[in-house]
Write a structure and sequence with these properties.
single chain; about 425 residues; alpha+beta; Serine Threonine Protein Phosphatase 5, Tetratricopeptide repeat; Porin; 2 domains; 14-stranded antiparallel β-barrel; two-stranded antiparallel sheet; 18 strands; elongated
Length: about 425
Amino acid sequence: MAQSALADDRPHLAYALSRGLLQENAENGRAHYYQAVALGGLRAYDRGRRAAKRAFRHSRSDTQRFAAATLAARLSFADSRLTRSQYWLRRAVDYAPSEDARTRTVTAFKNVRRRNPLNLQLRFSVTPSDNVNNGANSPYNIIEGVPLVGRLSPAAQALRGVVATSDLRAAYRLHRGDGHETRVTGRGYLRRVSLSESVPGVDGGDLSSAIVEAGISHLRAGTAPDSLWHFDLEGGRTWYGGHPLYDFGRIAATRRQALGDRMRLGFGGMLERRQGQTRANADTTALRAFGSLGLKMPATGGELGLFVQYRQTDSTGTNRSFDQWTGIVSYRLGRQLGPAEVKVSAGHSRVDYDSYAVVFPVPGGRADDSWFGGITATFADWDYMGFVPTVSLTAEKSRSNISRFDVDETALSIGIESAF
């Protein structure tokens, strides 16, 4: 009778019948569902959402859970609770009865996200590493082949441990117009280190860091088809070892553009000013420029990526001014390997310090060469509420004319990211 009342557009009667059913059995999931639909018809959206939540809790099958979660999302959307609507659409994805229903639910989630002025992104990872402190691979400090300075302290050598990171980014849309959008942004980043064994003079807290920043972001469509400009103005503070390290302000501009159906181009630049908060109190100006190219490979379905970056840092502090070139090649496989989507990458970086001193000035300065690579597996089939696990294996080898900076690291990172 309650179902027939809803079909006849008689929500008052359906609500009364659902109340009677729930007086008989408060765990009747179907009665909670009918009540939620009736309350939605009466525009009591918040009460309806709570009834849909109870229907979800007391559902006896995945089909019922999918229907209840989808209803809760619709009622939340009608009540202008867009973040809550996104939450319930994520719950619905887990119980979609077919791939087509899952696709429709993901599409609905993306549509709500586009309308929601609030956007939240969270990344979390745990990384066992054989070099959590970027320490040297030898106890000796050899400069240009000559052991002038002697042995390094244990804290300056490679230390084993586990690194846990969390990165929360938030953006709130202030204004949207024809082809442009402005947001306020914020970020909180935390890196915690736990050492595998006790080392004199250092503990995990000494190697941990944190970043807090806020800013404003402006997006504008370019004149070319499928192109976008992204402008950022940000400021914040960085902590290291539990103490303020420096305050910073930066301005950045990025351009993304499609070059045909299979190629995408990106380029941009950033200017950052840092004001030191340590005893050394070194102020630094950093300039960064980059270019990237993505190419879809029709023969394999994969995607090839190329990335080049130049960074210049000028500082009033000793040994802090350098020039750096970095190049990275990546390839995302066009098909899954078992349950995993796989991406591989490799790159090289060159850092030059024109002036560098270790007790005495080093003739010719310091020069570091780094080779690095990695493989990342994303287990897209093992999702929960649209979040999927990722596993990355990375390795890096750096060689320098100052052996303190001969660094080797291998790390295995386990993380979680959103699939949509």
